[in-house]
Design brief:
Length: about 400
């Protein structure tokens, strides 16, 4: 049997990991992830830890732990190959390291011995690493050119006599004053929110969009028509790290994205398109082969029907007209009188003689007179006296 120093001569297991260190003197971060390389020498079972040097990091880097045998945390022997696994933690002299990967030889060695090492994991990036990489890119000039720099370059070409070939200029000359007009709505689900209607204008000259709030009567909202001023509308909004930085044109909304019946995203708001005007319908039919008119959504509200309340029946006190007026007005007024009818018909009375037919033999001999007064359409009933009838005669029903 060969000894370990001869069998595993110059064989090193290399692992990649990091440990977290607290930062107390910076306002933009509270901890930092420091990357390390762990090398286990198999010929003598020694361990060495080093940290890759980063320029202008402000901390001493390089050799982190000299090559030596390291005892386990529990004190039972020394750290060996069985203590290393990708995705696990290992403690060396009170400091805990998290292993995220290994090199090809290390993986081959573990596979030959039938040990599953685990898949590589992604190393988390702290705020300092992000700002450091951005600063380095700015130093090398690898950041995209700003809008002013691109414009100065184009002006320089024109000054040297280059022909003004510009796609945006050509698009502007061909599509100036051509606007696609849509109508849409947004359901505001916040407190005291509601449905907000918009007039959407898409300018073909420069692919910009404008949202104007449609005025709705008695909506309770302030009359500010401009909801979003004219500008590019992106499907996904991302912040710019440098002011004036050029953005990609691929993420903007184009005419083929505006389809009646579908929805678009406007700064986190879902806008549903319900209809478009005649010019927009003609544009989509000729250039895109889409019939927008057939996809129109009807959002008109159904007419409100109120149940008619009938007045309560007359209780017999006073005149019925007076009681009806009190149901229609808070401050009742006397009912209006037909003066012409009153002047012409006053003094005229229509009298009709009748008998009481209620099946009672005692009432069969009673004779009544019904008087009708046409000037106010009122009726009175009188009973004609009959000798020895036993009934009170005179007024039978009040006028």
């Amino acid at each position: 049997i060969q000894p370990a120093w001869l069998k595993h001569e110059k064989q090193v297991l290399r692992f990649y990991g990091y440990f977290q260190e607290a930062v107390t003197e910076r306002p933009d971060e509270n901890s930092r992830k420091r990357h390390i390389v762990i090398m286990f020498c198999m010929e003598d079972g020694t361990l060495q830890i080093s940290e890759p040097k980063i320029e202008n990091s402000g901390i001493p880097q390089g050799q982190f732990l000299k090559r030596q045998r390291v005892p386990r945390e529990d004190g039972k022997g020394f750290i060996g190959p069985d203590d290393f696994r990708v995705g696990c933690e290992i403690t060396v002299f009170g400091r805990t390291y998290f292993i995220v990967g290994a090199d090809r030889f290390t993986r081959w060695f573990y596979e030959e011995n039938g040990i599953e090492l685990g898949d590589d994991e992604q190393v988390p990036v702290d705020n300092w690493s992000k700002s450091y990489k951005l600063a380095k890119l700015a130093e090398r000039g690898s950041l995209p050119a700003s809008t002013s720099a691109v414009e100065q370059k184009v002006i320089g070409k024109y000054t040297m006599g280059a022909p003004p070939v510009d796609k945006k200029l050509t698009q502007f000359l061909l599509n100036d004053r051509k606007v696609l007009r849509f109508k849409g709505y947004w359901d505001d689900h916040t407190l005291y929110g509601g449905r907000v209607y918009f007039n959407i204008h898409y300018y073909l000259a420069d692919n910009t969009v404008e949202f104007n709030e449609a005025k709705v009567r008695n909506s309770g909202r302030a009359v500010f028509p401009g909801f979003m001023k004219r500008g590019p509308l992106f499907k996904k909004n991302t912040p710019k790290c440098v002011p004036g930085l050029l953005t990609s044109e691929s993420g903007r909304y184009m005419p083929e994205d505006f389809l009646v019946g579908d929805s678009i995203e406007m700064w986190g708001r879902k806008i549903v398109l319900i209809e478009c005007d005649d010019f927009t319908q003609k544009f989509y039919r000729e250039y895109l082969g889409i019939d927008q008119k057939s996809m129109t959504i009807d959002v008109s509200e159904k007419p409100v029907t109120h149940t008619k309340l009938m007045p309560p029946p007359h209780n017999g006190i006073g005149k019925e007209e007076d009681s009806l007026i009190s149901c229609k007005m808070i401050m009742p007024k006397a009912p209006k009188v037909d003066l012409e009818k009153l002047m012409v018909m006053t003094g005229e009375v229509l009298r009709f003689e009748c008998k009481m037919m209620n099946g009672n033999p005692d009432d069969s001999m009673r004779t009544l007179v019904i008087a009708y007064y046409p000037h106010d359409d009122e009726v009175a009933v009188f009973e004609i006296p009959v000798r020895n009838s036993g009934h009170w005669v005179g007024k039978f029903a009040e006028r």
